[in-house]
Give the backbone structure.
Amino acid sequence: MINKQVLGLSFVFFLLSVGSFLVTPEILDLCQEGEISCISNFEQNVIFPIFSWSVTLFLITVFLSFLSVNIFKVWLKFTVVYLLFSVIVILVAPSYCDAPFGPCWGKELATWLSVGTFVLISLLIIIYKKIKEVRQKNALGGSQG
C-alpha cells in the first residue's frame, strides 16, 4: 500500500531538486550576467548541495512510500537531526581549498560525504526496522496458530 503523505513529501523534494537546478544567480539578481566567478561560487556553494540533497531525499521518500508509516517516522526523526548537522558542516566547510599538502576539505566534499553517509545510514535504518517489523509480525502470527 502506498502512503500518500510520504509520496506528497517526495513530490516536494522533486520540485525542490528541479527548482534548484533551474535557478541561476542572475535570476535571483545575485550576480551580474557573465560574472563567471560569482556564478561558479553560487553553483558550488548553494545549488549543488540543495540539488544533491533534494534528489537523495526524493528517491528515499519514493522508496519509503511503499513501506509502513512506522518506518517512515523513525527515518524522518533521523533525517531532521542529520540534515541540521549536515547543513552546519557544509556551511562551515571552506568554499575553496588551497592546501598544497594534505587533504582538502571543501563544500563539495562535505556535500558528497554527508549525502553518501546519509544514504548508507538511511538504508541501514530502513532494513533494520523492516526486519524488526517482519519478526514481530511472525511472532504474533506464530503465537496465535
Summary: The chain has a mean pLDDT of 83.
